[in-house]
Structures are given as structure tokens and as C-alpha cells.
């Protein structure tokens, strides 16, 4: 059955509806090329004036090639054939004697936008749900259906590179301004406007709308060389060579201006085929499917939406939570702080972020004002009777939090949820004296809240299913990926982070230099090293969490005593201008006086690979323990939590995928070696069992890839990598 249906209007314009049967989302599947060729031929046979493609789905045009189909490619030849099939079908469309028009409402992404690029005209709706982009890089791929060839011709080389290297998705206004679409219109007239374009005859080759400097740079080989060199340098700086897709994108775009059409398209198809088969792309595709699957969980029809919220505490976390609640979730937010200044600071936080958006013309002044109107605040409980959820973000003090539960039970409704942003205290203790413990839940954000994609949701034994579902749904509305974790000190993210950071501190105390330790983990693929991360979080914050973890979980969580001496000397991290590093306008540099303060004689003994191995081994082991104890429900949740919460290298697929790839027995024997001088490395039970049985965490072939072990020379030349989107979310991010 064809995905296209065809109808002629009174001006002999064929209206072709794209509708993949039985699916929510249109994607390009195996049969699409044959279906397209058949419909194009019918148009020719009918001697039509033009053809309009419109989606039969209510909220998407085409979301790209079917990613599952890519997973079915057995080898490079299969992947090459997929790309060539797309290219050929779009060439045929381009060559039709009649004009073709893409009428876009909703997502036109990847192969979906490439489809539209091959049409003569593109019209999109001005709706908020309309987004256009080539996000293949986020899957470790390049646009393999002519996107690397057609986009630069339409919007210019620099813009096309920027969009493809970041996977940026643009909305109607920006698409029109850049020349990506011919018009943007209200949904109600989309088809009429598109049908008019279809009567205009074939389109002439468009010229990109460039300013003088860009036009000068892009129009001559010397200028283009500068552009490509700069793009390449930036990519290497950001990815350190861990991600091959951006380099292949640059190569294919370069081919589009330097080689003949045939060779250039071949460069694109071959680059695509190489990438489909890489471990990196397999890992990134795994992340896409994991997050898609997670979106379906804890969805109940009767979950009452959270429309009014209150935030207790106007500090950095409270301000961030208020911001995402109002801006992303569209909720009304009431901030309560003990001081009016705290409320003002929190409101100012949002205002600053929104003002930047207004300056960049992403939002209008009126929109800014409307959004700010959603956030109010005060020092008492005014308006708390109306709120659906209260999120507390005050400091880690059990009694204070318990008294807040009592206040909210008195001041709010019977069904108001009390969510605690605690990073370490068990929720059962916070709920211990609650009258309505079923309403109490943990909702742990990461800082900066508006950038970090993860939240941990922590029900205690008495939390109701309804409270869990409402909280999960609200977190999703805030733009977060939630993982539901068990109520035990440190939950998941801080629990796997603490031993990793402690190991870094142990290595420092054993004489390894600060910058070498951080660099080792950056080269492994983390966005920031563990000591710099501690500086970001605040050494005082880390040292407050450590005793809670030690008390609840045991000796292996004991933080090195060194931290206290740093705190006594007012070295709390970035916020005080000094920690392991000093922070000045010129940038950060290692604070050499730390060595003397801690009585360390620098005596580097390990290479960077060994340093990274020891720190990462602690994290992997603790992640496995969390799975053993049911802190996380699955290896999948553990992978997503580590990637989105800490910035565990996405190209490795998360700690569990990484262990599968390396081989559990290898991980286990490495841990056992390290355990000879530090019992904290003793392998988790599940690791020992899996090592013995030859098992793995994922039953599927998800991680069935060979991991090239890095040699120590390699580690000197490789650098931290994130695909752009994930870097942006994590590089400034820090658990709290
Ligand atoms: C040759 C080409 O250059 C190669 C390519 O095109 S590669 C693909 C490039 N496209 C993409 O990366 C887009 C991927 N999709 C998305 O980002 C998001 O799905 C979206 C923004 C389109 C919509 O998000 P959202 O509304 O939250 O819906 P979401 O839950 O993600 O997806 C709904 C369903 O569509 C599926 N889906 C979306 N895009 C898909 C794709 N490209 N392939 C296969 N399935 C896809 C999801 O798996 C999910 O399926 P399910 O309900 O059966 O589990």
C-alpha cells in the first residue's frame, strides 16, 4: 500500500497526501522511493500543472528516514544503497516537467527536509510545532538524501554548515528569513498557498540571501577554504575526534562546491554509509530509541496536569525551577523565599534569560512580558491554596524540609504535591511526619536547571501512583527527561558521581597533577574533568553530601579529608573565585597553592589512560550496584541518567552499554586489580555474575560493536566530545 494518495484539483494541481499507515509519524521507509516514483509518473501521465505534497498527519510532515531501517543495514553496502535510493528518488522528483511544492506543518526533519529541499517550492505553517532541520549529526550521521548538497545552495555554506553540524531545528520565521522556505502562512491556508505555488511553473535556482562579507567569502575558493578550515578546527576542538559525523558533513559540503554533481553526491552517500556502520552512530541511535521509549512510561490519562506551581527558595536552583516551570511548562509560578530579595533574584534570573532571547529576536517584548507575568512571589503563603505542586529548593536540612511539608499541608489543598529537590536526603525521611505522605515525592534537578536535560523522580514507599504520574508528566512539560529512581541516599546520579570524584581526589593526593587528572577524563569524553566539576558544584556542597552518603551507604563513600582543608581556606570553587583552580577574567588556571595546602608532593606515576580508567571504573561499578539494588529500573535508565545528568560520553552509549562493549569480564578483572589496594573497587555482584556467565546488561545486539581500546598515545591526541546539542546541555552543567 502506497504512503501517497493522489487527488487532482480544478487547476490540474495534484494534491498528494503523505500518510504512513498505522503510524503516528511519517518516516521514509523501504518502499517510499518506489511509491514516490509511481506518483511522480502518474502526475506526468496526467499532464498536471504541478504537484503539492502535504502530510496526512495532524502534527508532522516527515520526521526523516526511518531510523529502525538504518539499524537493519547489515553492512556498508546496505547503508550506501539506502542513501543512493533517497538521492535517486529526489533527483527524479527534481527533474519532473511540472513544479513540486512541499506544504509543511509540523516536523520536517532529516530525510523529511531533504524531501522538501528537492521540491521546487516549500511553504510552511507559522505554527509553533513546525520545525525544519537536518538533525542527523545527533544520530552520528550526515544527511544522506542530498541535504549536504542542496541546503548550502539555498541558505549559504556557513549557515548550512552551522545547521548541519549542530542539528539545529529552525522555526518558520527563521526558515523564511534564511530562504529555506518560500513562504510561511497560517495552517488554515497552507494548502491553498501551496497549490498557488504549484501553478507558477518550475522554480529558478535560488540564490542564498547573504550579507556582503559572507557573499565575498563564499564566492571564491580562498574564502571557502577559510570557512572549511575554521569549521574543521571548531569540530576538532569540540569533538576531539570522537565523533566522525561532523567531519564527514564538512567533507560532503566541500564536495558540493568543489566537485561535479556526480562526485559530490557520491561523497555524501559514501560518507553516510561509513557513518551508519560506526559504533558512535549505533550508540547515539540507541539513545534516541531509549528516550523515545521513556516518553511513553508513567503516562496515565487521568493524571491531572500541573498548571499552578510554587517554588520554595529563590536561590539558583529555585530560580531555575521557576524558570522552566513558567517558560517550558507554561505553568503559573509563585516563588516563596524568607527574604523579598530572594524572590527578586529568582525573578531576575528568568528575566535575564528571556531578555537574551528577546535581543536575539527569538521572542517579542510582548511575549517576554506575558511570560514574566506568570511568575510572582512573596515571603508568605499567599496563593498556595491554588497550587497543584510545590517544589522545595532550600538547603539540605532534614528538619527544615519536614517543617515545610507541614506548612504546605496546612496552606495548600489536599491533593497538592510536595516535591523535594533534595540531592541526597531520603524522601521517606522528608515524608516521615507528613499527614498526606502519598503527595510527597523527590524531584531532583541538575544545575543549571534550564540547560540540564535530566531530572530524577524519587517516590518513597508511600507515594501514590497518581503523584508519580503527575510529577513525571510535569517534568516532561518542563522539557526534561525524567528517570524514576529508588529512594536511597544519593539516588542514582550523585551516587555514581561521588566515587568517581573521590577517586580523582585520591589520585591528586597520591601526587597526580590537577590538570592532568581533569584532562584525562576530558580525553575519555566527559565535557569537564572531575576536579573542575567539583569546583563548579561547590566543594562545600560536595562535602555536605559526602557524609550523608557515607552514613547511608558505607565507608566507600568517605570523602578524602583534603576537602575540609580546602573549605577552611575558603576555596569553595568557582563561586569564591578559587578551588582547585583560580577563576579570573582571563580564565581559569590551576591553583598551585592547593598542593602545598594539602601537603602534596607532585609525583606523577600514572598515564592519562590509567587515571581515566580508575575514575571511570568507580563509576561503572557503582552504576552496576545501583542496578543490583533496584535504584534504577534498568540499564537503559542508568545509561540515560549518566549521559544526561553527568555528561557520560554519549558516543559510548552510557555506562552499561560501555561495559557491554568492553566485555564484563574485562571490566571485572580491571576492578579486581584495583581492589587490591582499595576495597571500594571490589566488583559489584551483578558484574561478577555476568563475568562468570558471559552475560551482558543488554540482551539485544544494541551494544554488539567492537570497541577499540585506546592506547596511551591515542589518549594524548583525543579530546572530550559531545555532539553539539548534548555539549550545550551539559558543558556548563553540574550535578547538585
Ligand atoms: C537519509 C537521511 O538523511 C537520514 C535521516 O533522515 S535520519 C533521521 C533524521 N530525523 C531525526 O533525527 C528525527 C527523529 N525524531 C525526532 O526527533 C522526534 O521524534 C520528533 C521531533 C520528530 C517528534 O518528537 P515527539 O513528538 O516527542 O515524538 P516521539 O515520541 O519522539 O516520536 C513518536 C514516534 O515516532 C517515531 N519516530 C520519530 N522519528 C522517527 C524516525 N526518524 N525514524 C523512526 N521512528 C521515528 C518514534 O520512534 C516514536 O515511535 P513510537 O511511538 O512507535 O515509539
UniProtKB/TrEMBL annotation:
EC code(s) of this entry = 4.2.1.17
What PANTHER family does its record include?
TRIFUNCTIONAL ENZYME SUBUNIT ALPHA, TRIFUNCTIONAL ENZYME SUBUNIT ALPHA, MITOCHONDRIAL
Q: Where is the 3-hydroxyacyl-CoA dehydrogenase NAD binding domain?
A: 310-487
List the source organism: Pseudoalteromonas aurantia
What CDD domains is this protein classified in? crotonase-like
The protein in question is named enoyl-CoA hydratase
Query: Is the Membrane keyword given for this protein?
Result: no
According to the UniProt record, what class of enzyme is this?
lyase
Do you know which Pfam families this protein is assigned to? 3HCDH (PF00725), 3HCDH_N (PF02737), ECH_1 (PF00378)
Record's keyword annotation contains Transmembrane: no
Residue ranges annotated for the 3-hydroxyacyl-CoA dehydrogenase C-terminal domain, each copy included: 490-583
Provide this UniProt record's keywords sorted from A to Z: Cytoplasm, Fatty acid metabolism, Isomerase, Lipid degradation, Lipid metabolism, Lyase, Multifunctional enzyme, NAD, Oxidoreductase
Pathway in which the depicted protein is active: Lipid metabolism; fatty acid beta-oxidation
* Catalyses which reaction(s): a (3S)-3-hydroxyacyl-CoA + NAD(+) = a 3-oxoacyl-CoA + NADH + H(+)
The UniProt similarity line reads: In the N-terminal section; belongs to the enoyl-CoA hydratase/isomerase family. In the central section; belongs to the 3-hydroxyacyl-CoA dehydrogenase family.
Q: Which InterPro entries does UniProt cross-reference here?
A: 3-OHacyl-CoA_DH_CS, 3-OHacyl-CoA_DH_NAD-bd, 3HC_DH_C, 6-PGluconate_DH-like_C_sf, ClpP/crotonase-like_dom_sf, Enoyl-CoA_hyd/isom_CS, Enoyl-CoA_hydra/iso, FA_oxidation_alpha_subunit
Highest taxon of the source? Bacteria
Amino acid at each position: 500500500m502506497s504512503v501517497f494518495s493522489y487527488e487532482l484539483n480544478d487547476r490540474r494541481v495534484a494534491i498528494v497526501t503523505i500518510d504512513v499507515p498505522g503510524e503516528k509519524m511519517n518516516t521514509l521507509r523501504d518502499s517510499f522511493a518506489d511509491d514516490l516514483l509511481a506518483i511522480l509518473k502518474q502526475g506526468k501521465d496526467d499532464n498536471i500543472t504541478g504537484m503539492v505534497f502535504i502530510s496526512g498527519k495532524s502534527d508532522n510532515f516527515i520526521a526523516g528516514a526511518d531510523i529502525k531501517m538504518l539499524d537493519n543495514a547489515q553492512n556498508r553496502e546496505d547503508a550506501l544503497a539506502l542513501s543512493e535510493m533517497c538521492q535517486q528518488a529526489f533527483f527524479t522528483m527534481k527533474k519532473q516537467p511540472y513544479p513540486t511544492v512541499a506544504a509543511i506543518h509540523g516536523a520536517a526533519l532529516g530525510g523529511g527536509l531533504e524531501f522538501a529541499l528537492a521540491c521546487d517550492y516549500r511553504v510552511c505553517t507559522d505554527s509553533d510545532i513546525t520545525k525544519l532541520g537536518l538533525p542527523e549529526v545527533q544520530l552520528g550521521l550526515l544527511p544522506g538524501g542530498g541535504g549536504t548538497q542542496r541546503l548550502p545552495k539555498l541558505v549559504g555554506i556557513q549557515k548550512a554548515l552551522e545547521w548541519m553540524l549542530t542539528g539545529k531545528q529552525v522555526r518558520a520565521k527563521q526558515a523564511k528569513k534564511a530562504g529555506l522556505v518560500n513562504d510561511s502562512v497560517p495552517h488554515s491556508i497552507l494548502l491553498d498557498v501551496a497549490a498557488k505555488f504549484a501553478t507558477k511553473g518550475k522554480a529558478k535556482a535560488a540564490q542564498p540571501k547573504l550579507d556582503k562579507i559572507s557573499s565575498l567569502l563564499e564566492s571564491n575558493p580562498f574564502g571557502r577554504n577559510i570557512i572549511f578550515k575554521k569549521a574543521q578546527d571548531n569540530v576538532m576542538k569540540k569533538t576531539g575526534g570522537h565523533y566522525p559525523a561532523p567531519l564527514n558533513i564538512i567533507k560532503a559540503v566541500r564536495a558540493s562546491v568543489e566537485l561535479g554533481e556526480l562526485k559530490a553526491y557520491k561523497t555524501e552517500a559514501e560518507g553516510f554509509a561509513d557513518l551508519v556502520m560506526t559504533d558512535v552512530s549505533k550508540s547515539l541511535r540507541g539513545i534516541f530509541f531509549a528516550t523515545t521509549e521513556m516518553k511513553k512510561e508513567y503516562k496515565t490519562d487521568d493524571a491531572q496536569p500541573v498548571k499552578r506551581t510554587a517554588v520554595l527558595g529563590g536561590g539558583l536552583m529555585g530560580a531555575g525551577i521557576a524558570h522552566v516551570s513558567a517558560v517550558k511548562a507554561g505553568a503559573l509560578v509563585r516563588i516563596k523565599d524568607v527574604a523579598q530579595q530572594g524572590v527578586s533574584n529568582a525573578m531576575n534570573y528568568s528575566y535575564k534569560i528571556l531578555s537574551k532571547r528577546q535581543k536575539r529576536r527569538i521572542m517579542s517584548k510582548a511575549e517576554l512580558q506575558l511570560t514574566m507575568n506568570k511568575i510572582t512571589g512573596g515571603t508568605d503563603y499567599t496563593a498556595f491554596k491554588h497550587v497543584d505542586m510545590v517544589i522545595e529548593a532550600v538547603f539540605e536540612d532534614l528538619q527544615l524540609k519536614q517543617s515545610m511539608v507541614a506548612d504546605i499541608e496546612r496552606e495548600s489543598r489536599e491533593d497538592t504535591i510536595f516535591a523535594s529537590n533534595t540531592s541526597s536526603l531520603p524522601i521517606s525521611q522528608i515524608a516521615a511526619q507528613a499527614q498526606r505522605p502519598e503527595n510527597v515525592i523527590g524531584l531532583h534537578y541538575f544545575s543549571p536547571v534550564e540547560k540540564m536535560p535530566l531530572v530524577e523522580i524519587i517516590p518513597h514507599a508511600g507515594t501514590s501512583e497518581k503523584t508519580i504520574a503527575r510529577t513525571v508528566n510535569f517534568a516532561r512539560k518542563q522539557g526534561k527527561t525524567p528517570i524514576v529512581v529508588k529512594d536511597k541516599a544519593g539516588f542514582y546520579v550523585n551516587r555514581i558521581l561521588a566515587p568517581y570524584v573521590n577517586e580523582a581526589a585520591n589520585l591528586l593526593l597520591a601526587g597526580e597533577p590537577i590538570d592532568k587528572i581533569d584532562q584525562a577524563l576530558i580525553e575519555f569524553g566527559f565535557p569537564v574533568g572531575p576536579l573542575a566539576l567539583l569546583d563548579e558544584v561547590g566543594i562545600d556542597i560536595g562535602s555536605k553530601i559526602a557524609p550523608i552518603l557515607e552514613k547511608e551507604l558505607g565507608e566507600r563513600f568517605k570523602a578524602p579529608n583534603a576537602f575540609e582543608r580546602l573549605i577552611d581556606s575558603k576555596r569553595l570553587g568557582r563561586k569564591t573565585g578559587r578551588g582547585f583552580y583560580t577563576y579570573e577574567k582571563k580564565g581559569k588556571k590551576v591553583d598551585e597553592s592547593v598542593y602545598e595546602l594539602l601537603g602534596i608532593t607532585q609525583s606523577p606515576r600514572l598515564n592519562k589512560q590509567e587515571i581515566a580508567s580508575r575514575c571511570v571504573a568507580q563509576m561503572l561499578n557503582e552504576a552496576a550496584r545501583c542496578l543490583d539494588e533496584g535504584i534504577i529500573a534498568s540499564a537503559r535508565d542508568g545509561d540515560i541518567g549518566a549521559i544526561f545528568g553527568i555528561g557520560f560520553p554519549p558516543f559510548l552509549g552510557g555506562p552499561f552499554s560501555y561495559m557491554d562493549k568492553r566485555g564484563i569480564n574485562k571490566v571485572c578483572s580491571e576492578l579486581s586489580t584495583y581492589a587490591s589496594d582499595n576495597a571500594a573497587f571490589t566488583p559489584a555482584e551483578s558484574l561478577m555474575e555476568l563475568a562468570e556467565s558471559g552475560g551482558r546488561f543488554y540482551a539485544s545486539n544494541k551494544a554488539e560493536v567492537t570497541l577499540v581500546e585506546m592506547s596511551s598515545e591515542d589518549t594524548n591526541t583525543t579530546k572530550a566530545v559531545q555532539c553539539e546539542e548534548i555539549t550545550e546541555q551539559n558543558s556548563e552543567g553540574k550535578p547538585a
